[in-house]
Predict the 3D structure of the following.
Amino acid sequence: MPKEKVPSELKSKLQNQAKTLSHPVDEIADTLKVKESKTVKVQNSLTPQLKQFNTQKLPKYKTLRPIQLRLRDDQIEFLDRLERRIMSERWSGKERITKNTILRTLVDILKEIDITTREITDETELFRKIRNTLIGGNP
């Protein structure tokens, strides 16, 4: 496809427009300079409120990290029954007791006992060692 020649009249008009649009670099830089940071002013003005917000107590569940736990049906049923029994047999309480609460409590108990970890080859052996440590019996 051959190049079309731009008429000289149009060419000079475009060149003049280009000259009027071009600005020296210093002039452009001046327009981009920020005299005072408004972000800092806003952050400083909100600092007391932000500090107050950060010190407000979060609900317990928001301070905990979720994990995935696979349980058998009988284990889930047991936790359901225990949760319902705890909740129904109390007069008052400041927090709801859930299956998660029960499991976290058990983990905290396990942290406090010394379990012999030698030769634990499967879940049955782990169960036996934890049970014996907690309620006695054959090691």
